Amino acid sequence: MSFKAILSTVFVALVASGVQAYSGDATYYYPNGGLGACGAPSQNTDLVVALSADQYAGGSNCYRHIGVHYNGNFVDATVVDLCPGCASGSIDLSPSAFQQLAPLEVGRIQVTWDFE
Question: Residues 6 or more apart from 112 whose CB is under 8 A from it?
């Protein structure tokens, strides 16, 4: 089976299962042990993420996991914070989560992601 056929099959499966995929910018921030909007402390080494207000949904998505894809790389991150400066679909990752996708020096990448 070709890569294109596999990708098409995965896309059809996601659509059929009702999973909504998002896309946007991914940047990184330093939690530094502070409390996120979800109310728990996070470290820079944790695989965590802050969502835009639209996806944060008043905290209803706190502690859910998202799968983030970039350039063949993947990271599973836990929602712990709100990113008030993020556009809908964009996310702010901890340095450790961002580095699973790209070097910190890149600063901003275009990703796709979904709730797991």
Answer: 21, 22, 23, 68, 69, 70
